[in-house]
Amino acid sequence: MISQFFVLSQRGDSIVFRDYRGEVQKGSAEIFFRKVKFWKEDGEEEAPPVFNVDGVNYFHVKVVGLFFVATTRVNVSPSLVLELLQRIARVIKDYLGVLNEDSFRKNFVLVYELLDEVIDFGYVQTTSTEVLKSYVFNEPIMVDAARLPPLGPAAIFMQGTKRMPGTAVTKSVVANEPGGRKREEIFVDIIEKISVTFSSSGYILTSEIDGTIQMKSYLSGNPEIRLALNEDLSIGRGGRSIYDYSSSSGSGAVVLDDCNFHESVHLDNFDIDRTLTLVPPDGEFPVMNYRMTQEFKPPFRINALIEEAGPLKAEVILKVRAEFPSSVTANTIAVQMPLPTFTTRVSFELEPGALGQTTDFKEANKRLEWGLKKIVGGSEHTLRAKLMFSQETHGNITREAGPVSMTFTIPMYNASRLQVKYLQMAKKSKTYNPYRWVRYVTQANSYVARI
């Protein structure tokens, strides 16, 4: 199936390299990195996840700044290999607690042992952390999580009055804590990626939510867990609209188009009271994946206007309004807008008192970029940009520009309003009361407004 597997840093250093079949030349890591690096410099977007160079197929995913790459000369399913790379990254993270260069270098013996058990002569054997525990006996060397920059998914959940411990997402599922004891806790994350397309007049043309309920268990003895969802949850389109709601955490009808469950989930009571029963395996795993195309209230409204302001000049006005409650804050917002190809210079004007905002004009691909560190619910932000052209416009200038696209992360908010009502565990004793952490996050998948 696959010939080689390797992990590269952002600089192109080879951290892990495993050749399973000897069919591909040894310099493949250098060839791959050079190809990916110079792909960007050609003025195009980033390199696609799958490409071919001299008869060798390269598959890669980028996880927390590291390239996980597989090569092969045969024609294999790209979806299969990309899913395998994601699962290898997840297994290594389960064992090491945190994925970075430092943790790889300190645990390279354990990482190679895992790779030999996961893949044999290029063929996948297992990617289950639960199964691997009976074959892999090396203990991980833990990296000090306090020295890690708060850039990963752990940082986006640090909101609200009750905060989860800072080391929560950076713990190994196999290693004990100092003193030989293990902190009893379980994490449930409801992660939703939303896709919305707005027309030039602001109407919603398409809207979709791809969601997943992720679970990571640090419970000893693997007790049975009951996880309850909204009682009025219905699956399959019923033709109803759920557009009229005011809060991300309010209750109300939730209509999913379809969903699927992890093999460990028992659905005996799901049709009766919307509860899932499962014995969680070790490591991180998706309890449930779901999709929703019913209309929902979008978290942001985007208004974009471009008009001529004289010969060889034009003005762009971008407005972004947060439609969610003021108790919620969105992080790392980026707005992009392609400009006419004959644009030579752009001058920006931010609103008075704007903090944590950046603007840029990428001349290579004629793109305006606007970054906002955070947006509080209910607020509105405006950007004005004056464009200079190298030639006069002929025809409609709006056809030469746009559409506006946006990326963002909103912790403790979910657009579908799917909720975990409660999380119960089979009690081993009267004093057994593990920590439970339920977290929500919404991210943009494809958020586009036409001009």
Total DSSP E strands:
26
Classification by helices and strands: mainly beta
Whole-angstrom Rg: 24 Å
Major β-sheet annotation: 9 strands, mixed
Kindly state the mean pLDDT as a whole number?
85
Strand proportion: 35-45%
Number of helices: 6
Helix fraction, binned, reads 10-25%
Broad shape: globular
Lateral arrangement of strands in the main beta sheet: 13-16-9-8-26-24-19-22-21
Uncertain segments: 148-168, 239-251
Q: In angstroms, what separates the terminal alpha carbons? A: 46 Å
Kindly describe this structure:
This protein has 451 residues and is mainly beta. The chain has helices spanning 28-41, 78-96, 101-106, 108-118, 129-132, 270-273; strands at residues 4-8, 14-19, 50-53, 56-63, 66-72, 119-120, 123-124, 185-198, 204-217, 225-229, 233-235, 254-256, 258-261, 265-266, 275-278, 283-292, 300-308, 313-322, 329-338, 343-350, 357-362, 367-376, 380-389, 404-411, 420-425, 435-449. The strands form six sheets. Strands 13-16-9-8-26-24-19-22-21 form a nine-stranded mixed beta sheet, with helices on one face. A five-stranded antiparallel beta sheet has the order 2-1-5-4-3, with helices on both faces. The relative contact order is 0.13.
